Every structure is written in C-alpha cells, then in structure tokens.
Amino acid sequence: MNAPLSLLKMRFLMGLQYRAAAAAGILTQLFFGLILIMVYAAFYTHNGEAQPMTLKEVVAYVWLQQMFFALIVLWQFDGELFELITGGNIAYELCRPWRLYPIWYAKLLAARLSSASLRCLPVALVVFILPEPYRMPLPTSPAAFLLFTLALLSGLLLVAAISMLVYISVFWTMSPVGSVLMIAVAGEFFAGMIVPVLLMPGWMQTIAGLLPFRWMVDFPFRVYTGHIGVQEAIAGIGIQMIWLAVLAAAGQWLMGRALRRVVVQGG
Amino acid sequence: MRLYFKYMSILFKSQLQYRTSFWLLCAGQFFVPFTVFAGIYFLFERFGKLPGWTFHEAALCFGVIHMAFSVSECFVRGFDAFSRLIVRGDFDRLLVRPRSTVIQVLGSNFEFTRFGRMLQSAVVLGIAVSGLSVQWTPAKIITLILMIAGGVVVFSGICMLRASFCFWTVQGLEVMNIFTDGGREMAQYPLDIYAKWVTRFFTFIIPFGAVSYLPLLYILDRTDGPDLLYMAMPLASLLFLAPCLAVWRVGVRHYRSTGS
User: Fold this and answer.
1) Residue A194 included in any domain
2) Binned average pLDDT, 10 residues per bin, chain A of 267 residues
3) Which of A140, A265, B188, B193 is the most exposed place for a label (fewest CB within 10 A)?
C-alpha cells in the first residue's frame, strides 16, 4: 500500500479511539439541530410561503449539517501539524522519503472521516424517527441520494484542500491563529453554515457564488433535498472538481515555495 | 477579592506580552459572533419578523446574552479551563494555600481577548437600543444591567458545574457544551419561540429565561402583573449559583490527586 493511503488508514483507526468525545458530540449535535429547527420554524410561521426554500428543505439542511459536521466544519485543525511547523520538527518530516503535500492531505482527510463516521450514523438513526416537524425527510430520489454522496465526498476533498492552505500559511506567519480565524469565520459564513445561502440576500448570494466555500456545504445539501436537479448536480460536481484542482495546485505550489525557504525553528 | 484583582492584573500584563497575537485574537473574537448576528439580520430581512418580535427586540436579547457570555468567558475562564489544572495535578498547589479555592481557580486564568467579543455585543446592544422606541427610565436601565449581570452568573454557574465534574471524570465533559455554547445559541433568541419543554427547562432548571426573556418583557412594556417581579427576575440566577457552589464544595472534598 502506498504511503498516503496507509497513513490515512492509521489515522482513521486512531480517530476511532475517541468514542466518549464522539458520544458527547452526538448529543450536542442533536441539541443544536433541534434548537435551529425551532428557530427556523418560528421564522417560517410568518411569510413562510414566499421563500426560496421550504421549511422541510431547511430541516433537511440543518440535520445534514449536524450529521456531517465533522466533515465540513472549518474550525477543526490538527494542532500536531502546526507544532511541526512552529516547533521545528518539520525537519524530520522533510527527511522522510515522500512528498509532504499528499501525506498531510491524507492525514486531514482521515481525521475528518473517522470523527464523522462515529457521529453520523447515530445522529442519522435518531433524526429519521423524530416526530414531525423535526423529522429528517428522505432524499427525493435514489439519483439525488447518489449524487449527494458524490457531492459530499468531493466537498470533503475541497475542505481538506482549503485547510491545507491554512497549514501552509503558517510557514510564513508562524502562528496559526490569524489564518484559522479568517478562514473559519469567512468560510463558515459563505459556505452557508450559519444561514443557508439561499436565505441570504441576493448580493450576498452573488459573493458566495464566487467563492469555493458554498461547494462544500450548500451544494451537496441542496442536491439531497432535490432543490438542485440531476443535470445541474452533475455539472456542479464538475465545478467542484475544477475548484479542487485549482486549490490543490495552489497548495502544492505554495508548499514547494515554503519548503525551499523553510527556516527550521528551535535547536 | 483583592487577591482576585491582583491575579487579574498579573495575567493581563502577561497576555499583553504577545501584543500582535493579542490584538489579532481580539479582532477575531469580534468577528465570530458578528457573522452569527449578520445571519440573524438576514433572516429578519427575509421573513420580516419572528412571531411577536421585531428585529431590534431580538437584537436586544442577542446583545444581552452575548455580553453576558463574553464577560463570563473572560473572567470565569479559570473554571472553563479547569480540567487542565486537574490533569496536571496543579490543583494540589491551590489546596495548600490558605485562600478559598474558588478565588484561586477564578484567578488561575483570564481570557482578555474576549474584549473583542464584548465590544461586538456592545455594538449590538447599541443598535438594539437605538432602534427601539422604548422610554428608557432608570428602572429599565437597571433591569438591563441586572439582565447582563444575571446572565454572567448563569454562565459562571454552568462553568463551575462543569469544572466540578472534573473531580470525578478528570477530563472535561464535552456534553456540558450544550449548556454553555448551546445555551448561548438558544438564549440569543427570545425564549418563547421554542417548544414548551425547551422553554421550561431553560427557565426553571437553568434560568436563562429569568435573565433574558422575562425582564425583556418588562423593558418592552409587555408585562402583565407586578413590574417589580419581572425586574427582579435576573436575581433568580443567584438561586442557580447556590447549588453549583455546593457541588463544587463536594467535589473539592472528593478530590484525589492525579499526576506525578
């Protein structure tokens, strides 16, 4: 097995160790989901018909967000990698006979996959049997579900590519705080994690459309609800791939530059 | 109390040593709830209003809760980060000193970067107050201050409760985030938009309703019944603090050291 893949597997298994944290996460996710749905339900009692999304679609959106929280959240970063850079242990990393970008990328993917796989199913089990109006609706068609899975996974690849840029930025700034904050605050907002993109005002939607973030969250979730049709969804996955290629290429290039002039910290 | 301020000034100076990082974090703390508030604004713009609440009324609620949250995050941080003291065995040192453990834990950590967040809440409060057509009598201003103070007490109580559980579990309990972060997210909207069980739980068990929703009715002149009762509601938060302190005491007595 090649190095990035086996690293992915190792990290995945390591992440599975944290079961208690996952249980706590599940409860938190359920609570947040319920609260959010109540808020939206209250908003929808007034002027609810005229909206671009039905309440049902918003409910699905909220639950998907809670179920796949670990896959898409931009707050979560691996402190170990930051310490490698700022602490100077990057030197060992550079001695190893592999290219850094794919290795780190695999690590990030694995961490997200393992924590999501622990949380997703239990949350799913609960939300599909909740009483109305909280119940999670089924996908509109098998095709929609299939496309949703694809879109979500390529969205995950995008998330990892964007987080890589944050790690790489630390080569220059030496402190993760600033970049993490900027990306997390702006990214979460434009991804539609605070308010679904469709419920934002028009000018905000235009800005969100120009950025990669909405392809990680907003797009797959709307494929699930059938809001985005099959044709459009396939085209959308294509756009995700283009973004992914652009971001990964930028990441590789920047990392190459950073490593050429890397200063090893510490003695 | 003098000791508490002494701790505070020492930690403040030490945090200011990394000046750029400090200001960056402050700015970040300013923007985090900012996007949440922007989200609420967009929802109001789209839907017009919540049942029974206009944007500025909801903003007042948001401002009060977020102000209380950031003040308690700044000054009660010691309890928030308490599991670290336990894991490292540092709590032993606190026990041998002839001062109350509560004061010492409070003084063990401050998060002054939360000033950014406080500033943001102040801005929201400003927007809310200027947008409301309320006659601001002294009684109402006092009520508003009481609401924030009561909110701080509630958040502090939760933090203390979470810290007390560390005596048994060593690691911090992540579930308690439901009550701190979750409580904040929930109480930033007026409580009556939620289902009954949520409203009841967060009024009678954890009194967010008593510090935000009920006195808010008084400020907006929607009370029915004696005003004084609504005004004094935030004091109920003290009733919540008492059992939290008691649990803390029991916890301290149960403490068996960890670490080497």
Assistant:
1) yes
2) 75 71 81 90 81 87 88 75 76 77 86 82 85 84 89 91 86 75 84 88 89 90 86 90 93 86 61
3) A265
Q: How many domains does chain B have?
A: 1
Looking up tokens 């909405």 gives A214
Task: Please check whether residue B155 is in contact with residue B202, taking contact to mean a CB–CB distance below 8 angstroms.
Answer: no
Q: Do A42 and B50 touch (CB under 8 A)?
A: yes
SS3 at position A59? helix
Tell me the CA distances in angstroms from A119 to A64, A67, B14, B72, one per residue in order: 12, 7, 39, 30
Q: Of B182, B203, B181, which Cα lies nearest the Cα of B192?
A: B203
ipTM attached to this prediction = 0.84
pTM of the model: 0.84
Cβ density class A136-156: b for 16+ within 10 Å, e for less: bbebbeeebeebbebbbebbb
Picking from B193, B210, B225, B231, the residue whose alpha carbon sits closest to that of residue B53 is B193
What's the CA gap between A182 and B1, in Å, rounded? 38
> What amino acid occupies position B212?
S
Please check whether residue B189 is in contact with residue B61, taking contact to mean a CB–CB distance below 8 angstroms. yes
Cross-strand partners of B53: B50
Contact B201, B182 (CB under 8 A): no
Residue A74 counted as domain residue: yes
Any domain includes B259: no
In Å, how far is B50's CA from the nearest CA of chain A? 5
Assess if residue A267 is contained within a domain: no
Number of domains in chain A: 1
A39–B25 C-beta distance less than 8 A: no
> Do residues A216 and A159 touch, judged by C-beta distance below 8 A?
yes
- Residue A156 tokens, joined: 């995950």
Nearest CA in chain A to B35: A189
Nearest chain B Cα distance for residue A41, angstroms: 9
